[in-house]
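FAQ: What does a ligand-bound record look like?

Like this one, built around GMT:
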Amino acid sequence: MNIGITVYPTYGGSGIVGSELGRDLAERGHNVHFISSFLPTRVTELGERIHFHEVEMMSYPLFEHQPYDLALATKMATVARAEKLDLFHVHYAIPHSISAILARESIKQKRYVPVITTLHGTDITLVGADRSYLPITRYGLQQSDGVTAVSKFLKQATIETFDFDEIEVIPNFICPTQYKRLPDSPLRGELAPNGERLLVHVSNFRPVKRPADCIEILAKVRQSGESARLIMVGDGPERSAVYYHAEQLGMEEHTVFVGKQANISEYLGVADVFLLPSELESFGLAALEAQACEVPVIATRIGGIPEVVNDGESGFLSDVGDVGKMSADTLILFRDEEKRRAFGTRGRELAVQRYSTDKIIPQYIGFYEKIVKKAKAATA
Ligand code: GMT
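The answer part, i.e. the structure of the complex:
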């Protein structure tokens, strides 16, 4: 198939999922055309089957704000005709599904290119649910030829908010050879030079991730006498506030901010416990990546996280903000090596059995085939 994929290229889990999906589809022999404002961060190599089409913005004195949605729609339509695309697959509803629908409608006399929208989370739970964006988000869902959601939770949230239920749940995925334990990595010694325990957090440091809770957990763990360090991977609006919080609690020497990293698995592969204290996660991709690296997960019992992390088997779940329980659970894992290893092994098992690329990518391909066939029948 010739597949057009649109993602937010620089920020967030939806961009990672869309990019890695594209890379995997190319490895399976499909032609993938990324249509986006920048080359998505996880797409490091272009090649015979992976192409990139940059959305060019038109500036004109009348445009106080350059219309990205229209520029994207224009590019999508152009690429669809030139590359004979079989479908558009957009990640994150707003504005990508609207741009794709515009592109489809603008060229449908020549070629009908169906639109598949994958919902990732805040496109439904925050942005789309805002009264101002609700009608256009619902329109995007209704007019898409197919809609998928990354968790059962997100499907249910979409039904409740938008009264729209034609949604296939296709969960996020990991490549088991890319995400795995790295027992011999020298990074472990660099991050924990005195043999400290390693807590790792990965996020885009937005308020919804509650990164400051990680500092609280570290402080409580250390007050209990455990020698631990916290590695904060990623960057975003909360980073300065979190750093300040670490200083206030006297944790700055025990916390390392490594910023955005191209290869998250290097950090996860040497971690002892992963922290994800988010207020909301429709899936929690980072928790899945940690589990694939045999790292037990301490997270909140919200959204799609309970679908990914088995409470008491591969991690421990708590109420949002309950840093007392989260630190106590961390201590249980630090003080019982056998349990920590058993949780790690179970996490890897769950990740590979339920969410490996070999299991999930064929579900996307099957969905594409179904939608393309349906669209062909409807336009014949
Ligand atoms: O967080 C967002 O604003 C959107 C999105 C993103 O691009 O980061 O995150 C969502 O998609 C991820 C990939 O499917 C999920 O793993 C995240 O749980 C989800 N974030 C939220 O629901 C807050």
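Follow-up question: can I read anything off the structure? Yes, for example: Residues 301 and 335 are 23 Å apart (CA to CA).
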